[in-house]
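Handoff note, outgoing to incoming analyst
You'll be picking up this chain. Sequence as last confirmed:
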Amino acid sequence: MTPAERAARYLDLENAPFTLPGSRILVLRAHSGLTVCLAEYERRLDESMLVRTLRVFGADGRLAPVSDVRPDRIAFGDAGVTLTFDGPDALSLGGDGRWSVELDLPGLAPDHVWRPGLPSAATAGWSATGADDVVVTGDTVRLSFGGGSLRLGIGAAAATAPADHPASLARTLTVWDDWFTRTPAVRDDLADMTAFCWWVLGANIVSLPGRGARAVVPSKIGYVGVWQWDAYFIASGLRHGDPELAKEQLKLAFAFPTVDGQLPDVVHDEGVLASSDDLPPGDRENLRRAGSAIADPTAPIPLTKPPLAAWALRRLEGFVDDPAWFDTAWATVARSQEWWFARSDLDGDGMPEYGHPYSSGLDDSPVFDAELPVSSPDLAAYLILQDDLLASRARATGDVEAAERHTARAARTLELLEGMWDETAGFFRSSGAGTPVGSETAVSLLPLLTGRLPGRYVAGILAALDDPDRFATAWTVPTVARRDPDFSEERMWRGPVWVNVNALLAEGLAVSGHPDRARELAEQTLRLVIHGGGPHEYFTPGTGRKARTATTAFGWSAALFVDLAVQLSA
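Most recent structure output, in case you need it:
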């Protein structure tokens, strides 16, 4: 069975939309037909609808339901009609014999052009060949065909002539065949989900205007942009099949540092999100979190993501042959590390803090119920790891002074991290504006990543992982301990299981001297994704199913499944 055939098993048009690498067009099930939407930054699908409903009818006039979905086409019953792409900005619908289609189009004008008014599609249009009857009633168009095809296009493609449907089918098949030829080889029991996860990564490719690179976004459903740490996790999976595309993700994440070295939270269609001042005015006050005893509530708040840049960059070594790019990228990472210590140590104690929940990536974690800024053990661990990797890089390039500086700072940060251990509670405790935070969350486990914790702390973390009242749930690892009053099966970052947290913890177990435990957690994480039906954004720790509000076909879940599957298949 080919990877495309394996992936097709999961293409239900609900959890996985019909789309094309590089396209903003998404096709999903709706009512008795399909709906066509566009992937837009910070817009819900119901705010970016192109076609409200598309229905196909056979020669007998009866509705032809979707009967088959493959990466390159959708088939409708026995009507002999298929839907495919005609390049990234258009859909082609065609078939032999008699058939018809009904389109409910928002805002249709008399010239057959409708105006969604969206950033990636101010206008759209349709053109047909072989249509022998066209009836327009308000915003509804019904076309009848004796063979022929219908083309729906956006932007410049709206005015293009009708598609050659067989040629469109062939071109779309070629695009997907080229993508699937890169599918990494894995164990047989992991092959189906790996193929689907590889499809997810291809499906989530978009073009960001003026960026000069392909972006693999977290999801075309609501997450259209390059979030910094999403890019790091996505690159980790892409490196096994398309290392150049993996490099493009880091290039985008590293391309827009501030003058003092801070890397932005998001690179998106309209610019970057690097501080609260980059947000619409109405959102700024909600994000300032005024009232902190340390942070200035009137000042712009830097928005970034956890410092895993060196971690991601190191993972591309041996996969990408571009020494000059690596030199530049490592210099960018070194400057970003300096930013954390110079500009995000808000109380001046030598340990940087999170100045805003966005910068942690764990926006809704109960550690951020505390007053800002938050000193958190996961940030300490990331900074230690990043200084260690920068020291290793400096030694490799002969920069002894830089190596010593990074090594010394990592040692100081480790001492401060050890000071966060709460002996009575048995975990590394966060603090908000200097006040201890009560909640026990997964951030208390992530110091394993340093590989440098004294044995008693490692033993304490293992005890937490083995305790059914804490993190030993049916499907591990929950992001909040079960005994904690803030634990929730469903609420984002307050209990559900995330693939990226599990992957980091598995790595932490391995570098902390517990390779068998690391493999066990990695294997269970792969079983979770398979059991849950796909690489969702997050999963419930009790059932192992998709949490109610989690996004489906999620980029880093897919990429890290691929990454773990390859590692465990070696």
